[in-house]
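Cast an eye over this sequence plus tokens and explain the fold to me:
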Amino acid sequence: MVNIIDFGFRLFDKWLYIMRSGNTLKSFFDDNDYKKIAIYGMGRIGKQLYAELKAVDVDISILIDRNAKCLKDLYNNIITLNELPTFKNIDVIVITPVQFYSEIERQIYEINQDIDVVSVEDVVEYVYRKQVGENG
């Protein structure tokens, strides 16, 4: 089993490398032609992802969190997963609680199989490898 603390450190180490290099995670979405983004999970990682993507004008159409009612004061575009069918044209959902990725992915596909689903780890790893490849 993956140690979630070690995983978190590795994820943020790569993410900080990307940022120190003057890049952002935006290239993942541009390269994959994802225009309408949803973020699942507004814990610490979700909040950081949201802040970074908003800063570089990525269209975050909706936020999804099981505690959406408690977060409505902070985010006006936050919903629960059960409300997902009312939102059309979402290109990709980025799952931030990576330790529950498989379970959340399954729940999303039970609702809508036409939306791409990735983990925040996939996003960071893609940009990191692209960055290292360009510099390495």
Notes: Strands lie at 37-40, 60-64, 78-79, 92-95, 116-119.
